[in-house]
Amino acid sequence: MAKKAFLVGINDYAPCGPGGPDLRGCVNDVRDMARTLSVLGIVPAVPGSMQILTDCRATRANILAGIGWLVKGAKKGDLLIFYYSGHGSQVADTSGDEIDGKDETICPHDFATAGMIIDDDLRAIFKGIPAGVNLEVILDSCHSGTGTREMAALAALPEEQQVTIRYVEPPLDYGFFLDEDPAIPLRGFMRAKPGEKQAVLVPGLNHVLWAACRDNQTAGEGSVGGAIRGYFTYCFCKVLRRAGVAVTRRRLDALVAGCLKQEFGAAQVPQLEGTAASLGEKVFT
Length: 285
Fold this sequence. Notes:
Layout: E1 3-9, H1 26-39, E2 50-54, H2 60-71, E3 79-85, E4 88-92, E5 102-106, H3 111-114, E6 117-118, H4 119-126, E7 134-140, H5 147-154, E8 164-165, H6 172-175, H7 177-180, E9 200-201, E10 208-211, E11 220-224, E12 227-230, H8 231-243, H9 249-264, E13 271-274, H10 276-279
Parallel strand pairs: 1-2, 1-3, 3-7, 7-10, 9-13
Antiparallel strand pairs: 4-5, 5-6, 8-11, 10-13, 11-12
Helix pairs in contact: 1-8, 8-9
């Protein structure tokens, strides 16, 4: 049985160095996730099993190539993990499969020129995975259009109290249509049901999704123990290390949500998606 993980963390957005919509906690997140997966024996920290991509190297082409490496040759019984920490956004859905009319995205280092990676891109890759492969997708990024307003309001706080929202505005040629065109068909890679705080059951889904927040919320990063960290990743790794790999996915989801609320007072609610069977199984099995 193969065990593989592809981990992406982007602090530095184009251009390389100062000047982009940069973050500060995403590389720390990748380091924490890699250590957690290794220490718990989930995926060994060796190049053949674990690949890490950060900052300027995390271009759209390189991320897609890394996901290709992750799923290549996958067979029944394999464990595959795709982890992303960085900016998220939304664009208008044009394929008609999102109930809110919006596609969620992750933002590569060069998203401004090369484009974002939308949920349809990921779905197209993941749908070819053979039955019986355990694919866990973990995303610590925003999926909400309100993040820039929150950043402006929090900028005056002392650094240890500041919260940076991991969201970037989509380009106008995509973002203009999010709220302006009611004719765009409604259309669920990161689908969240209004008012629901529990895991989302998606019959037939061939992977498990761990999202830092619902698709109408923002995910934050801030100072944790003297270092900038993503709140979701910090709680996910902390709780998983404490609970161990015998914990079920549904239980881990509840524990992570509790950690976010208790330690940070965070409004973001982590979103777990999968089949009824997969949510009741032990994590990473």
